[in-house]
Amino acid sequence: MRRLLVLAALAALAAFNAAAPAAAKGPSTASITGPGLNHGLPVKGEGESGPGTPLGSLVQLGGFFPQVFEQIPDPTTRAQLTADLGPRYQVAYRVPGPSGTGTIVQDVYPYAEPSPVTYVRAGQRFWTDNRTHGGWFVSTAALKMALVEAGLPESPPAPGGASFPWAWTGAGALGVVLLLLLALRRRGITRLPALRSTA
C-alpha cells in the first residue's frame, strides 16, 4: 500500500512538472537597455520557439522559465554570485497570459567571467496573482553570442557607455569656441588704438 502511495505521488509530481511548462507562456516581445545603447534595443523572434530566433535564444539560454516559474530540479540559486559580473543590462519582457499581458524585468550580465549570468528579482507580479520565482542563473557563452547577434557590442563598452565619446567631443568643441573668442578679443584690442589715433 505504501508503495502505491509513493508511486501515485511521483506520478502526480511528474504530471505537474509536465503541465507547468505547457501552461507557462513565453514572452511575446523584449527590449534591452544598458551601457552602450542609446535607446531600448528590441529583441525579435518567438519567446516560446527556443533557440533559433534572438528572443527564443535569450529566453532559453538566459534561464527565463526557471526564474519565472519554479521548476524541479531548480537550476537557479538564491546566493548572489561573486564572479566578475561586468556591466549590467536589463531586459523587459512582455508576457501575454490569461489575465492580460505582464512585464517581467531580468538583469543580464553578458560579459561576466567565466560565464554570462542573469538574475530575476523574486516576487515580481504578473498575470494579476502570479509572482516570479526569481534567482540567479549561470548560462554559457552561447548567451553572449545571442545577445551580440541581437545588437549588443562584442566587448564591454567603456565606462560611461555611449555618452563617453560624446562627452569628449563636446569638451573639444567648447575648447575650440573659447580659443576663437579669445583670438577675436585680442584682435579687437590690438586694433582699438589704431582706430582711436585716426579719430
- Judged by helices, strands and strand pairing, the structural class is alpha+beta
Mean of pLDDT: 79
Major β-sheet annotation: 6 strands, antiparallel
Radius of gyration, in Å, reads 27 Å
Strand content: 15-25%
Unreliable runs, pLDDT <50, ≥5 residues? 4-23, 161-169
Number of strands: 8
The run of helices and strands is HEEHHEEEEEEHH
Could you outline the blueprint of secondary structure elements for this entry?
Layout: H1 2-23, E1 29-33, E2 41-43, H2 54-61, H3 64-68, E3 89-97, E4 100-109, E5 117-120, E6 125-126, E7 130-131, E8 135-138, H4 141-150, H5 163-198
Antiparallel strand pairs: 1-2, 1-3, 3-4, 4-5, 5-8, 6-7
Helix pairs in contact: 2-4
Explain what you see.
It is built from 5 helices and 8 strands; from the N terminus they run αββααββββββαα. With 199 residues, the chain is of the alpha+beta class. The strands form 2 sheets. It has a 6-stranded antiparallel sheet. A two-stranded antiparallel ribbon has the order 6-7. Strand 4 and strand 5 form a beta hairpin.
